[in-house]
Design goal:
There is one protein chain. By secondary structure, this protein is mostly helical. Helices cover 74% and strands 0% of the residues. The chain has two domains: 13-230, no CATH class; 325-420, Alpha Horseshoe (Serine Threonine Protein Phosphatase 5, Tetratricopeptide repeat). The protein is built from 21 helices and no strands. Helix 19 packs antiparallel against helix 20.
Length: 420
């Protein structure tokens, strides 16, 4: 998994505003800005329908990436994402519709209401960031719900006013660039510069929205993805738990055992917790529980392809109960094969004989019976091997392994005596 630079959620938002100016110039952001701007340059052609289509597609492209930047920043990552993987194009389209509708209402209010209409413009500029953030994470209904605006703005506090000021300044910058472009004429370089500036500012403002969410994620009840990943990969919690258990066990071994019992019931746990749990059970003489834990842990280890470690647990359980055997054919058989291939002859023999004795009617029984014969032979026990081989021939006279059993008995110098 690639490593990602992480942002510090405790960094004041005012400082994130200054740091964020460089955000659109890092990673994949500048390539995206320039690529979209190059496409938007097609608007210099006089065909009206083409200009509208290019403008719409350009907005969708830049907003799709900007929304991903918002999410990526809110999740605690310091650098821009490589590509927009998680963003639904419908979210981008909804954002464009909200932008166009709001701007149209603001312009119309200014035209028909004059100076009071400017208040409509300011109100729209004030709620646009919160609408964008709500749209990104909660969908259109939340983005259009005034109750959501009030609740979230209250939680964000004065930092939202800073964001509002940046959004207004960015809008004025884009308007100034557009005015200069119109005044001097739509030159190729001027148009290119305008689109680059507009895309840069869009990425910057969306990054700040994500930074605001990241800074206030606890108040908003949002858990950044970077923290989820860190929690999954960081064993510090279990290390701390083990230290706590060791401390408690000095005076209260049963209490320490109960703590580990609850943790192991939650699911996958480090080996150290399992080993300590077994130590505490053994100290208290709670041998039945030790064997039960052994069965559960052995099955989990086999399922995760850790047969070698599972064999160690099997041997530990045999030391407690000499007739101990894993309680499932799939577990017992896999461990018998692993022990045989690994040179653990005595343990392989124990498991193979246990399999044959416990599940004689299972389709795998003749295989593990033959394995037991071979383990007897490996231990230089020809009499036991021959006796077991003859019993197998009598019990499974039509089984395909009969040929292998007879060949092995021949090598032992024993003639099988089986009635036809």
């Amino acid at each position: 998994m690639p490593r990602h630079a992480l942002a510090d959620a405790s960094t004041p938002f005012a400082q994130r505003i200054l740091i964020g100016v460089r955000y659109p110039s890092r990673g994949a952001a500048p390539v995206t800005i320039l690529a979209v701007a190059a496409f938007e340059l097609l608007t210099i052609f006089p065909v009206s329908l083409l200009r509208v289509l290019v403008m719409l597609l350009g907005w969708i492209a830049i907003y799709t990436y900007a929304i991903e930047c918002l999410r990526h920043t809110a999740d605690g990552f310091a650098d821009p994402p490589e590509v927009a993987l998680n963003t639904d194009d419908r979210t981008s389209v909804a954002l464009i519709v909200i932008q166009l509708t709001g701007n149209a209402l603001a312009v119309l209010a200014t035209i028909f209401l004059g100076t009071p209409g400017l208040l409509v413009l300011l109100v729209f500029a004030f709620v646009l960031p919160i609408m964008t953030m709500s749209l990104t994470f909660d969908g259109v209904e939340a983005a259009l719900n005034p109750i959501t605006w009030i609740r979230v703005v209250r939680r964000l506090g004065s930092d939202y006013l800073l964001l509002f000021a940046i959004v207004v300044a960015a809008a004025l910058l884009e308007a100034g660039a557009l005015y200069a472009l119109a005044d001097r004429g739509p030159t190729f370089l001027g148009t290119a510069a305008f689109y680059v500036i507009a895309n840069y500012v869009t990425i910057y403002t969306f990054h700040l929205m994500g930074a605001l969410i990241h800074h206030h994620h606890e108040n908003l009840g949002y858990q950044p993805e970077s923290e989820v990943i860190a929690d999954a990969a960081n064993p510090d919690d279990d290390v701390a738990l083990l230290g706590h258990v060791n401390l408690i066990s000095r005076d209260d071994i049963p209490g320490a055992t109960d703590i580990l019992t609850e943790r192991l019931r939650e699911g996958i746990a480090p080996v150290a917790l399992h080993l300590r749990y077994r130590e505490l059970l053994r100290v208290q003489g709670r041998l039945p529980e030790l064997l039960v834990h052994g069965q559960i842990w052995i099955a989990a280890l086999v399922q995760s392809h850790e047969e070698r470690r599972a064999l160690g647990v099997v041997q530990d359980c045999i030391d407690v109960d000499p007739v101990f055997l894993p309680d499932a054919t799939i577990t017992c058989g896999a461990l018998a094969d692993t022990a045989a291939h690994g040179g653990m002859t005595r343990l392989a023999l124990h498991l193979a004989l246990g399999y044959l004795r416990t599940w004689p009617g299972d389709m795998g029984a003749p295989h593990y019976g033959l394995l037991a014969v071979r383990m007897h032979e490996r231990q230089r026990e020809p009499a036991e091997a021959a006796a077991l081989g003859r019993r197998l021939l009598a019990a499974y006279p039509e089984h395909p392994l009969r040929v292998d059993i007879e060949a092995l008995l021949d090598t032992l110098g024993t003639t099988p005596k089986v009635s036809s």
